Amino acid sequence: MELIIWAVLLVGVFGVEEEKKTNITFSPCPDTCSCTHSEDGSINQASCKDSNPEYIFSMVPNTKHLIISGCSKPLTHVNITTQSVGFIESLLLDGCLIDPSSVQNFKVFFSLARLEILNTRDPDLILLDCNVVKNLELINLSGNRLTSNPILNCSAPFLRNLNLSENSLSEFDFGDISGYRDLVYLDLSANPLLELVPPETDLSLTKLLLRDNRLLRTVCSQTFRSTPNLKHLDISFTNIQQVPLGLIQLKNIEELGIEGWIPTCDCQTAVRLQSVDSRDLYTGLQCLSPVSGTRFNFTAPGLLNSLDCGEIQIQVPRGNY
């Protein structure tokens, strides 16, 4: 009898739960979007294409994650209110024409932690209001033809991920990000970088991407010495002429991208690579003889003889190089 009573009770409980679920009203998803809903029926994530952003903001007021690829109309500050966007935690705008004033107006996104503005048609607009930056954990401004750091002089105590790849940066001063103590990921790939200015204090970076900076010919050792926690570095397809001593001295490096990078051979680097702990990461790295232009493997045992280094001593470097 007790088993029957328990069975009836369980059926009743599950029946009530099922009834609650069937009575949930799911928020409508805009025609140009695909949506996922939360258990309460509100839109948790919306991915929209070729849409009017102001209309989308008004249609998904409680969404946490919003992606708009290709805005059918320019994004302006009109009608963007805290009521319509206050719950958004991550926002991605790809290929949208954004009015400069609306970038400042992003501060109405008071819950925003991840902001991605990609491939805009007007790079001059990207100078983010510091009131926006101060709450962000991720900023992705890839593909905007930026010529300078758009978050310069902003406080960013929570920022962990900064992506400035595929822009028009010719110089990057690491001192500009020295105040971002939680920043562990920096992507500067595919820029026309000519100079990297080292910071005066150590950075927290664990991952640094410099690949496809084909105009980059020198990186001073202090740049790498200021990143003692670096685990992943990609300098593939750069034109860095000499292997910086600071690079060889990185003690925590686990992944090193060197595809398409062919520096000049030199005796001092060849000797240091013979005994460095991370020697295996340089396996396959080729270098060019400064005399004949012949390619050698930098870690090959016979390189010293090929370069006619003779009996050499490790030199103590002067300065930052």
Give structural notes.
It is a single chain. The chain is α/β, with parallel strands linked by helices and 321 residues long. It folds into two domains: 26-262, Ribonuclease Inhibitor (Leucine-rich repeat, LRR (right-handed beta-alpha superhelix)), CATH 3.80.10; 263-313, no CATH class. The chain is 20% helix and 19% strand. It is elongated, with a radius of gyration of 27 Å.
Task: State the CATH topology of the largest domain.
Answer: Leucine-rich repeat, LRR (right-handed beta-alpha superhelix)
Q: What's the alpha carbon Rg, rounded to whole Å?
A: 27 Å
Number of domains: 2
Q: Spell out the CATH superfamily of the largest domain.
A: Ribonuclease Inhibitor
Short description:
The chain is α/β, with parallel strands linked by helices and 321 residues long. It is built from 9 helices and 15 strands. The model has no long low-confidence stretch (mean pLDDT 85).
